[in-house]
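Give me the fold.
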Amino acid sequence: MDAPIEHADPATLWKEAMAFARKEVSAGLRPQWISPSGKESEANAYVVRPPQPPPSTVVAKLRRKLCHRPPFIYTHFRWQENGEWQQISRSDLCAAYLRLCEDYNGLRLALSGLERLARDNDKVTVEKELACRTRFRRELEVIRERGSRYLPRLKWAVGYMASYLTFLCRCEDHNAHPPISSGMWERYSKPITEGGVRLHDKLGHRRLFWSGNMDDYPFRAAMVVNRTETPEGVQVLRKEIERLALEVLRFRDCEYPETNLHQYIPANRKLPSSRLPVATALDTDSKTQSSKSEESGVEAQTESLAPPAYKP
C-alpha cells in the first residue's frame, strides 16, 4: 500500500457545484416563473429574487431603474416526461448531488484512512510490523483493487451531475437563464437508471446541450438518487475496510481499537435530507405549482419575470 489513490474532496474539485448546493435563501419570497411561451403552465423553472440594498447614489438609482434586474435564485425546475409535467425542487436536486458526493468522498476517505493506518507503525516493533504485513497483505490488496474499480465510477457520477450544477450556478451569477430555444429542457436520450446514475461503467465526456438546449438529466437523475441507496458493493467495501482496520489495530495491540478506529476511518455520515435551507411559497403550498392544481383551477400566486438567456 505504497501509492495513495489520487482523488480529492468534491468541494475542492467542483467548487461552483457545491456553492450551488449550499446556497441559502430566506423563506417567504414570492416565486416567479420562467416560460419562453409566456404561459405558467409551460414554465420550465421557478426563481425568487432576494431583496437588494437600496442604491446609495443618484447614478446608481438611475442605473437600477433603467437596466438593473435583481439577481435570482432557482427554487424549482420543471420538465416534460411522457407528455406530463414533472417538477423537482432545488432542495431535492441539491440533496441528490450531496448524496453522490457522500458516496464518493466517504469511500475515498475510508481507503485513504486504511492507507494511513498501514503506514502508521512507529509505535510497533519491527517484528510485530512484519508479522502484521504478512497477516493482512492479501486482504489489503483485494480492498485496494476494489477501491480502484469503484472510486473512478463514483467520481464520474459526481462530476457529471456537478457539471450541470456548475452551469446553473453560473446562470445565477450572470443573472441569466440557460438558452432553451424549444421552450423546454431537451429530453436526455439515454435511459436513466440507478446503475447508470450512481455507478456508471462507461466513463467519458458527455454533452450538456443538444440543439442549443440544456437537457433534463440532472432533474431526472436526482429523482433516481433520492429514492435509491448507496450501491451495495460500495456499502460492502466500506464495511470491509472498517473490519480490516479494526483487526489491524487489535493485532498491533492497540489499547482502545474501537475508539481509535475513527481516527483513521471516518464514520458514515448522515445522508443529507431532501429539505435543504431553500424554501419559498412553492415549498409551503405545492398546490400553486403542480399540474393538478392547474387542472383544478387553483390560481398560482406567482408571476413571470424571466431573466435573459445565458450562453456559456
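The chain has eleven helices and seven strands.
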